[in-house]
Amino acid sequence: MRRLTLFLIWCASGYAPFATADETSGLAALRAGCADDAQKLCAGVPSGGGRILACLKAHKEELSAQCKQAAQAASLSGNSASGAAAAPAPAAPAPTATPSPASGRTAHAEKDAPGAFLRMKQVQIIDQGMDKVQAPLPAFDLMIPSAWNFKGNVAFGGGQSGCFSDMYAVSWDATNPDSSVAFQGAPTYSGQYEDDPAVLKKLTDPHRRALGAGGKPCPVLKPMKAEAYIRQYVLKALPSGSTIVSVEPFPELNQIARKQMGLPPGATDGSAAQTDAIRVRAEFQKDGKAQEGWLAVAVVTRIYREGRGSFYDSHAIDLMALRAPKGQLDANDKLFKVMVSSVRPEPRWQAYSGGIMVKLLNAEAQKEAAQDKIIADFQRYAAQTIMDVTANQFNGSMNSAAGFDQNIRGVQTFRNLSTGGTMELSNLYDHAWLNSSNEYIMSDDANFNPNGQLQGSWNQLQVVRAAP
């Protein structure tokens, strides 16, 4: 599981995400001059009621020269710090809002705005063609805050297990500018199991095991729930002394996983394909600083019945995490769900990589045919499953508005009226805009409009309501 250590970079220290400016608490000059200080010193303080300004006053000895000058200018203009905290918001429109570089969130310009908006950008993970066959090809798309840094990788043959389904190891690391908050993804981990003792003996025979990624065999792994997988395989990657605070179902991720695996929405038990998704809240210390984060994973188990037993094909997929300084995880919870719902494979890459895995599975089935029909049949079944999933992804990508399971996956379809194209975005926000740099603004305020408040030209997207 060494890749989990690279994936869970839970050890970085730094300041918390920037809290949005207090829309009722002061002058524009004070806001602009003390923005960096608010990010550094008051990250855990909620906005509103003059709390940000009060926090800055409490840290007056640590303020930057720029902030002190801005405070002095505000004071000289007849607005003392205490008075500004109590004063109502000015009737005139607030100055142009600027997205926070640390969290991707920013304050609304409207006095009565219910909360922040997100300024996001789409990024891609590119398969550089390390299998020496395919030229560089976009593999996965996801959305992160516009100011964040991003790096992703597809490692052919770099899977954690030797299963052919893990042949392409996809991972990414998205961080805010000071690296205090991160959204990360790790490769899948698969295994096989048979409850017929006679077949299980053959499955575990070292002389017969198929060698896949890295020359390793596909693990013989009893089916397990998502929580058991996290406890057994993931937590060991966290720093010593880490504690689990809570474990909760993650229904949105469960449905995302089912769609990725070509399964119908809704069902989780009593079928030939069982799914389970959770997220675990963990806390730990690093370099004397308290950190916390979400660990999320979905486990999909397909059951192939033949003869006296059942063959189990298990996949731990969508292993993702969000980490932040202690006290900042809840503030970024909505952002985490938005990013999780944005992760999706590119159909062309999925067709290509799936085709490679199908060839490997069929070749293994031919080799096994002379030794054990059950195992050979399973390899063919797995190959057919991959082909069905690929076909489903291709068809689904052409008509995203038809996805009746969008609600339980936490997404909805928006249409670009200029081009007619559609895209899936989080359903946590009903209003969205797109600019020419492929950046998105998402807001829950019907009165907000980035045009005139943010640089550039923003084209409003239209929500596509599904037919009843």
SSE succession: HHHHHHEEEEEEEHHEHEEEHEHHHEEEEE
Average pLDDT, rounded to a whole number, is: 74
Q: Specify the helix fraction band.
A: 25-40%
By helix and strand content, what is the structural category? alpha+beta
Number of strands: 17
The outline comes out as globular
Strand content range: 25-35%
* Tally of separate domains: 3
Which stretches are low in confidence, meaning pLDDT under 50 for 5 or more residues running? 1-26, 76-115, 394-404
User: What Rg is obtained from the alpha carbons, in whole angstroms?
Assistant: 25 Å
Q: Describe the sheet with the most strands.
A: 9 strands, antiparallel
From the N-terminal CA to the C-terminal CA, the straight-line distance is: 46 Å
> So how many helices?
13
Outline the structure in words.
- With about 475 residues, this protein is an alpha+beta fold.
- The relative contact order is 0.13.
- It is about 30% helix and about 30% strand.
- Strands 1, 2, 3, 12, 13, 14, 15, 16 and 17 form a nine-stranded antiparallel β-sheet that branches.
- It folds into three domains: about 1-10 and about 160-400, no CATH class; about 30-105, no CATH class; about 405-465, no CATH class.
- The model is unreliable at about 1-25, about 75-115 and about 395-405 (pLDDT under 50).
